[in-house]
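Translate sequence into structure tokens.
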Amino acid sequence: MTPPPRVLIADDQALVRTGFGMILTADGVDVVAEAADGDEAVEAVHRTRPDLVLMDIRMPGTDGLEATRRILSGALPEPPRVIMLTTFDLDRYVYAALTAGASGFLLKDVTPEHLVAAVRLARNGDALLAPAITRRLIERFVSQDPDSPALHRDLAALTPRELEVLRTLATGLSNAELAARFRLSEATVKTHVARILAKLRLRDRAQAVVVAYETGLIVPRTGQGQDH
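Result follows.
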């Protein structure tokens, strides 16, 4: 039997930490630690080795973005996945966090059901990306954020089919949806995705979406504030 996810909650608001902790614990998720700022979060990750960190972006002192960079810097042999918590769905720091390796983001007004589902989804290796929001986010900030290091990769290593999968994956489709689109089994789709990530040296699907835009595989549309 698979053990429950081990989660660390980092947020400067005690009510947020307590509320999220109660929701997750009630659903069998193991909340191993809490942190009120980025420094505490980094220390707690090294001490408790969680599977997943729920990381507030805006915290006093060391913020969630810098803490995420430290956690995912390679110092840990198996770093946790990081989900960013934000109040704004088009927060420029969310884009920077995705570039740094975060697996996705949640708005703080998330429903209890969505919170639990998100934790379990990310623990299983999927990126937590709401397609419409993520597309608008990346289209707004790609090539416009000087504080965010680019994730440019040479796509020449990919086969034509892998390029096609990457282009479609970047629109936010799940493995099941990709399988239906390409008339392949989910196992075959997972193999394609795994090869794409390995060839481009990416942590997960979230970074793959960023790369698809930054390399021009997908061209940002005009009228970025519109969601069609």
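Note: Residues 223-228 have pLDDT under 50 and may be disordered.
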